[in-house]
Design brief:
The chain is of the alpha/beta class. It is built from 8 helices and 11 strands. It has a single domain, classed as Spore Coat Polysaccharide Biosynthesis Protein SpsA, Chain A.
Length: 246
């Protein structure tokens, strides 16, 4: 069985969330958003390591609040960097020797399903690089800085990127080692892999696999989770129900 590590970047500033808490740490129907993400991976037999990337200024409070969860779930903390790619690079430096594939999943994307994770993991083993995405269905307009439409962009072949994005470890390590030389406006990890000449395969994601960016997204995520059947023994990996206030 191939072995996977999972990296959950959670060191962003959450500037658009506009709350006293950063979005990965906010409560979502009784549990923190990042916990809902982590629990989807730590119970898998093929996941041997899970890391969450936290900004240095948040780590003292994070450790105090989630000490029991971190120990029980065996989740490691990596230092957040100045930019997202610096954060992921810090986590990559902590990978166990036995890790063969690395999954990077937004710590603010708590509604991904076990079935979607299965699909993208299996594809990554076969192809070396795979990610979830959904086809663009709305009409796309390109505007100028004054809000005027300049063109309608054909949506054929366009996809909206999601996570997890899963890669061979050696490809991802090489991509990060060369990211300064790659340059350009890189916005996700798949783009780094593409720049090395590797193909990244798109797997059909779900419109329900949303990333929480605003307070409205939080309400939508709660509705999505409540609409799904509750898994058996869903509470078995939570040693404590009550969490400390941030």
């Amino acid at each position: 069985m191939p072995s996977f590590a999972v990296i959950l970047p959670a060191a962003g500033k959450s500037s658009r969330f506009r709350d006293r808490e950063k979005k990965p740490f906010v409560n979502l129907d009784g549990r923190a958003v990042w916990l809902r993400c982590a629990e989807l991976f730590i119970t898998r037999d093929d996941v041997c390591q899970c890391l969450i990337v936290v900004a240095p200024e948040d780590q003292e409070t994070f450790r105090r609040r989630y000490q029991a969860n971190l120990a029980f779930m065996n989740v490691q903390i990596a230092d957040g960097g100045k930019e997202r790619f610096d954060s992921v690079a810090n986590a990559l430096a902590l990978l166990k020797p036995e890790v063969e594939f690395v999954a990077i999943h937004d710590a603010a994307r708590p509604c991904v399903t076990a079935e979607l994770i299965d699909t993208v993991f299996q594809s990554a083993v076969k192809t070396g690089a795979a990610m979830l995405a959904v086809p663009v269905t709305d009409t796309i307009k390109r505007g100028d800085d004054r809000g005027r439409i300049r063109e309608t962009v054909p949506r054929q072949g366009l996809w909206l990127a999601q996570t997890p994005q899963v890669f061979r470890r050696d490809w991802l390590i090489e991509a990060y080692a060369q990211r300064a030389q790659i340059g350009g406006d890189i916005t996700d990890d798949a783009q780094l892999i593409e720049a090395l000449g590797h193909s990244v395969y798109l797997l059909q994601g779900s419109s329900g696999n949303i990333k929480i960016t605003t307070r409205e997204d939080l309400a939508l995520a709660e509705a999505i989770l409540k609409s799904r059947p509750k898994p058996k023994a869903a509470r078995s990996i939570h040693p404590f129900d009550d969490e400390y206030k941030w």
